[in-house]
Amino acid sequence: MNEKLKIKLSIADRVYPLTIDPRQEEGLRKAAKNIEVLAKKFEQSYAVRDKQDVLAMCALQFASKIEQGGINEAENIKSATRRLKALEEKLKGSLDSENVL
Known about the structure:
Elements: E1 5-11, E2 14-20, H1 25-45, H2 51-100
Antiparallel strand pairs: 1-2
């Protein structure tokens, strides 16, 4: 029962008809709304020539958040790995000193 859902999303004063899996609807609608909100911010804050410029800035903003999230995650993993190795060394040292007695 892979029934598809037909929806229409409005982005930058254009309507985009889509055929999607029903499980995607909420995410797509939220994404379209976030694009609209950010586009309005850019239009109000900067002198933009056309919607393409606004949409390019939106794409850059969202892509940079994703990339930065990946960088932050990698840094967190490295930090956790260092801490776990330090803890492992302490445990080994503690166990070795107990075995000496």
